[in-house]
Amino acid sequence: MQSVAYTGVPLLATAATWFLIFGLCSLILCCCCCCRRQKKSYGYSRIAYALSLILLILFSITAITGSGFLYTAQGKFQVSTTNILEYLLNQADTTVEKLKDVLVNLVAAKEVGVGQNFLPPDIQSNIDILGNMTNISAMIPKIKTQQSSKQIQNVLLPVRQVLNIIAASMLLLALLGFMFSVFGLQCFVYILMIIGWILVTGTFILCGISLVLHNIVADTCVSMDQWVENPTAHSALSEVLPCMDNATANDILSISKHVTFLMVGIVNQFITNVANNDVPPNAGPFYYNQSGPLVPILCNPLNFDNTDRRCTAGEMDLSNATQVWGNYVCNVLPSGMCTSMGRLTPTSYGQMQAAVNVSYTLYHYGPFLVDLVDCNFVRETFSDISEDHCPGLRRYSYRIYVGLVMVSAAVMLSMIFWLVYARERRHRVYAKKFTPKIYSQGV
């Protein structure tokens, strides 16, 4: 960061040099004008007059172009920065919402049971512990990103206002200076030169700051590329959108997979032991007059060790199981006995449906949880910013710098030629006025 800050030193030195030299020259010129008592010489050069006018027009056009360049560049830079911040906040919000969905479904899994079967007490206890740990952790990316966004916006808004004022002021100064010089209003030219002296000094200072800003933007984009390659490295970027604690993320992933495995097992256990079992009427709660085609069992997408498992023939996928099972629901009496063919009561079907919804949601968020463990979601975020937003951000920050340099240099040189042209114009008018008299006297 220090090396980047030094890149603006030459322009700051230029501002200081301009301020001192122009101020000193102006002071010496004033002293000379006040102390000289002899008759003024009104030498006139057509070349100097024409050349000063041409250069004055050229530098005035350059100042106008630079002001327009500066105004458009800072507007686009502001838009590009806002888009990046909105993207970061959206990524943080998405992460938080997905984590909340996982936690909500884990908590819901404690209450879901099919028949008389529920999750084991130790799993329910682990869910409670994990929920208490993760409620705070889930909000960390969002909170830190919002803080960073507010800090950046608090800096950018005043900077944009200052740049707009500078662009308008320098444009007005260049136009007024040109008009006053052309019309020979030398007194007003002197006043504008004092104002321009201060404005040019301030603009050169802003040039140095804008160059530092451009280099910071470029270095930040490079840092994003480096962080994508090595996400474990600690840097300022890791505070903007931090990775979730690896141990916590692993715990969420492990428990989510285990709950998915157990919930599917509970559903299949009910189907096998109760729904598809033709038990006698004296079997108690296991008998409700179930009959008809057997209910297909649910495909468990995981093995006991939480590794992925392929479904076998006849197993129902989590995504469409509840629709298929709807064909196996019977009509029931208030006592719960089936009065029509079917192996599932509306109550047991509702329990199975709730279990499947929880299992499907937890399994669906598996890739997201893996990304949390590997920090892929942060890596993808920074990679997208680097590819989609960094080129424009670098381009617009550089244009701001170029616009400021154009305006500063053009107005600085214009101020010199304001004096030159005003002097040559006054001498030209004097020469035209007195030359005929001289010729007539000579004749």
From TrEMBL:
Bilayer-spanning residue ranges: 12-35, 47-71, 162-183, 190-213, 400-422
UniProt keyword list: Membrane, Transmembrane, Transmembrane helix
Keyword Transmembrane applies: yes
GO cellular component terms attached to this protein's record: plasma membrane; plasmodesma
Keyword Transmembrane: yes
InterPro entries with a match to the protein in the record: DDB_G0292058-like
Protein name: Protein tweety homolog
Species the sequence originates in: Quercus lobata
